[in-house]
Amino acid sequence: MQTPSEPKLKDGSPKLEWAARSEGAKRSVFGNYRADDLESSSRRKEALTSFAGNPEGGQSLLTSAATKAGLQTSIDLALARAFIHRFLAKAYEDPTFEAWRWLTDAQTIALLRSATAVLGSLLSPSTEDLINALQPDAFNSFHSAYLAAFGHAARGQCPLNEIEYGDLKADPLFQPHRLADLAAFYSAFGLEVAADADERQDHICLELEFACVLAAKEAYALENQLDAEELALCRDAQKKFLREHLGRWTPTFARRLASTTPDAALGALAEFTRVFIESECARFAVNPGGEDLLLRPVDEAAESMCASCGIPGLPPGALPTT
Questions:
Q1: Which residues contact 32 (CB under 8 A, 6 or more apart)?
Q2: Which residue range(s) make up the domain with 224?
Q3: What's the rounded Cα separation, in Å, for the pair 50 and 12?
Q4: Does some domain include residue 90?
Q5: What is the pLDDT of residues 110-156, one digit of tens each?
Q6: Cα–Cα dist 219/57, whole Å
Q7: What is the per-residue pLDDT across 252-263, written as a single tens digit (0 to 9) for each?
């Protein structure tokens, strides 16, 4: 693991070789994936150049003209993105004091600042706002705000599940189709949702974790000189996943959360999420979801079943009359 005495970036922060190795991070929601499975090796070779600014990928496989600096920049960029996706996935899990301690740990904060610095100045204001709000003694406030915003069901004020957001006139098969598509994405990369994850495939934590895996795979492909087809596959998968899933609904979710929560940490987390996901969309030339994305209507069949029992409208504890 990186230590303070090991190499640092120009701004004095730790190098990004640590991104998949952060000690104390919680396990993946994908039961058969470990972050260190995709760690890059220590070898630096010259066969590849930077993928930054090349959303389609795959076509920048070079020969001796590639430089070590360009390769390292590309690897650092992919690892930085992987770390931020994983950080956000941990932040949106059901709050526990152990997870909060990791999120607010000095090393985690340093890594977050380093990762966002690699991605550019666009993230800087929201990063500092989030860091300032992530105070170790603010767990109780964050926990209360989390429960108020998300509750114990999918339909809280700001649902954490993708299929709760969509066209009000969407096809009845909209939900099962999207869930099946997500399952196909995960399966295509050999990932299986952990048996104790307790979440649907469209939960924000799973989608963020999957984006982390894809970015880490890109870093692995770059460092291990995989061929252009492998690199193109990683990049294309990230672009499609943003366009069809994570980038479609997360900006709306984040705006909704930021405008409704009174908690400083949760509000700052929402704003950072929006800025980061929109920057990812820009990186891959994907249009982020618009502000007009609405919550889907409650299932009418389920509502009619409840209405038929005669209970709606009665005061708490009252029984319907016969």
A1: 190, 191, 192
A2: 33-308
A3: 23
A4: yes
A5: 999 999 999 988 899 999 999 999 999 999 999 999 999 997 655 67
A6: 13
A7: 999 999 999 999
